[in-house]
Structures are given as structure tokens and as C-alpha cells.
Design goal:
Elements: H1 6-15, H2 41-45, H3 51-64
Length: 69
């Protein structure tokens, strides 16, 4: 059992204990984000003229209207 003086215990009771964090780890570099046009409105609606985008827009529209009455 450790032998503490009364002053140390009083100081801890009055001031509290501060716990310091350990050594900081280096942050991993985030991978570069891929730039995509897939979420832009023209591509979603098929307005830019691509046949695949028009087909996808048609599928999305049918899915959105599937349960509407």
C-alpha cells in the first residue's frame, strides 16, 4: 500500500485528477475522392443525351410511380 501524505490527498480532493492522453498516432491519409457526374441532375434525368442515362431515368421514373394511385 502506498504511503501518501495528507496534503496530496487534500489536493486531489480539492483540485481533481487530470489524466493526459497518450502519444498521438499519425492520422492515415484519406484516399483521394473520385469525382463523378453520376449524381448530377442532368445525368439522373437523362437530359444530357446519353442513351444509357435516358434508360436509367426511365427506370427511375417507373420505380417512383410504381405504388402511386
Amino acid at each position: 500500500m502506498a504511503n501518501f501524505a495528507g496534503d496530496d490527498i487534500d489536493a486531489v480532493i480539492m483540485g481533481g485528477i487530470t489524466f493526459k492522453g497518450g502519444p498521438k498516432r499519425e492520422k492515415r491519409p484519406e484516399p483521394e475522392k473520385v469525382k463523378t457526374k453520376a449524381k448530377k441532375k442532368q445525368y439522373i434525368t437523362g437530359a444530357h443525351g446519353s442513351g444509357a442515362a435516358k434508360k436509367k431515368a426511365d427506370i427511375r421514373a417507373r420505380r417512383a410511380n410504381r405504388h402511386k394511385k
